[in-house]
Write a structure and sequence with these properties.
By secondary structure, this protein is of the alpha/beta class. It contains twelve helices and 21 strands. Helix 5 (about 110-115) packs across helix 6 (about 125-140). The structure holds ligand LLP. Ligand LLP binds near residues 61, 237, 240, 316 and 374. Homodimer.
Length: about 425
């Protein structure tokens, strides 16, 4: 659910009016609610309290170190996919021993770094990765814990771009290859198989695919037991969807109850990797209308945030609610809400019935996950600041980029003179 509420005709996040945030920090900007993030994390933790469990927040959803710090203080673990994410977690005060490392393309230096930092476990996604891990661990004289990420060929019924557990997907290991691979790991001197994992996609709004995944993982767990391999954990991935519009995903408690019923008899630690369900509804993107543009065919509200700031609508045709920060009595019209970027895909919402005036502020709701973390500098636009609201306080947790930041890493090559 949204973390926004109207008080009178003004939109608030916790006890902070969005208008005040715009006055203080300018627009566009991302704003997050501390209490919403913490409440979601606690709901997961309590909902799984009937079985041994560890929540490893998926850092890619929102990787600001202030957000990671909030979660580290709650004793969260972290699911990471790059060296950058490891170092973010550590900079935020997270415990490396609670990090699981996912991803199909782990580079040598990333593996070495993760071994040096003594992370909890690597989720292996292919046989060549297994061989690379083995070679590096042996060279570094390290014993490392690994899990096999299984591709169970289960359709999560979500957008094709965020479907990850079908046969045609690059992720995970075919379920029929798991036993030989597990045996190979057992024979290796430097790797220890401690778990199996699966993650079949994101923004999943049905319970059935999750239940199928758990069945598949438990089958594999038993097959491994039969050949003498006892695991320490089962990682059921992330993927629980949230309500952006008219979706009805299972609530965190319902999801946890159904999965726990299956897992409880096995008395094994369960790892969960939620990202979106923790931060998605806990953040918004605040933007100002620069121009109202009325053509014979359409009305456009051209705002100061674009696809470089929030890519989801352009990339996945994602629908996110757009709310006026101040309610007033102008005429309601149907608008496309578009950004300033030179691409026709640069829209934040289409066909929205809104009463707008030029200069109004708009809140693009449910932007806490995969919002800032997928932003870019396309069109040489400075990325927006991020602000964390805690009660009646609003703190800057990332400053707005400057024009200088944009080309600070660039170098004009020393060229031979032109002819
Ligand atoms: N674990 C693994 C291995 C993942 O790849 C992901 C997300 C998660 C956990 C967390 O999934 P979540 O609970 O957030 O659904 N950019 C897309 C979503 C991409 C998700 C990638 N993997 C979007 O904006 O919808």
């Amino acid at each position: 659910m949204s973390c926004l509420q109207y008080r009178g005709n003004q939109l608030y996040i916790e006890d902070v009016s969005l208008k005040n945030v715009a006055d203080e920090f300018g627009t566009p900007c991302y704003i997050y609610s501390r209490s919403a993030i913490e409440a979601n994390w606690h709901t997961f933790d309590e909902a799984f309290s009937g079985i041994p469990h560890r929540i490893c927040y998926a850092v890619k959803a929102n990787s600001n170190i202030a957000i990671l710090h909030l979660l580290a203080r709650l004793n969260s673990g972290f699911d990471i996919v790059s060296m950058g994410e490891i170092d973010r977690v550590i900079a935020a005060g997270g415990d490396p021993k609670k990090i699981v490392f996912s991803g199909v393309g782990k580079k040598r230096d990333e593996i070495e770094h993760a071994i040096e930092k003594k992370i909890y476990c690597f989720n292996i996604e292919s046989e060549p990765e297994l061989e690379r891990l083995q070679e590096i661990a042996a060279r570094m004289n390290a014993a490392i814990d690994v899990a096999i990420r299984i591709n169970p060929n289960i359709n999560p019924h979500t957008h094709s771009h965020i479907t990850t557990g079908l046969n045609e997907s690059k992720f995970g290991i075919d379920i029929t290859d798991v036993i030989p691979l597990a045996q190979k790991i057992s024979r290796s001197g430097s790797l220890r198989l401690v778990g199996i994992a699966s993650h079949i996609g994101s923004q999943i709004v049905q319970l059935a695919p999750f239940l199928e995944v758990v069945d598949r993982l438990l089958d594999t767990y038993q097959q491994l037991l039969k050949i003498g391999i006892t695991l320490r954990h089962i990682n059921i991935g992330g993927g629980l969807g949230i309500t952006y519009h008219d979706e009805h995903p299972p609530g965190i408690r319902e999801y946890a109850r159904a999965l726990q019923d299956k897992l409880r008899p096995y008395n094994i630690e369960v790892i969960i990797e939620p990202g979106r369900a923790i931060v998605g509804n806990a953040g918004i993107l605040l933007s100002r209308i620069e121009y109202l543009k009325h053509t014979q065919h359409k009305n456009f509200a051209i705002i100061d945030a674009g696809m470089n700031d929030l890519l989801r609508p352009a990339l996945y045709d994602a629908w996110q609610n757009i709310l006026p920060v101040e309610l007033h009595n102008s005429e309601v019209k149907q608008y496309d809400i578009a950004g300033p970027v030179c691409e026709s895909a640069d829209f934040l919402g289409k066909n929205r019935d809104l009463a707008l005036q030029s200069g109004d502020l708009l809140a693009i709701d449910s932007s806490g996950a995969y919002g800032f973390s997928m932003s870019s500098n396309y069109n040489s636009r400075c990325r927006p600041p991020e602000i964390l609201v805690d009660g009646s306080n609003a703190s800057l947790i990332r400053r707005r980029e400057t024009i200088k930041d944009l080309f600070a890493a660039e170098i004009i090559a020393d060229l031979a003179p032109c002819d």
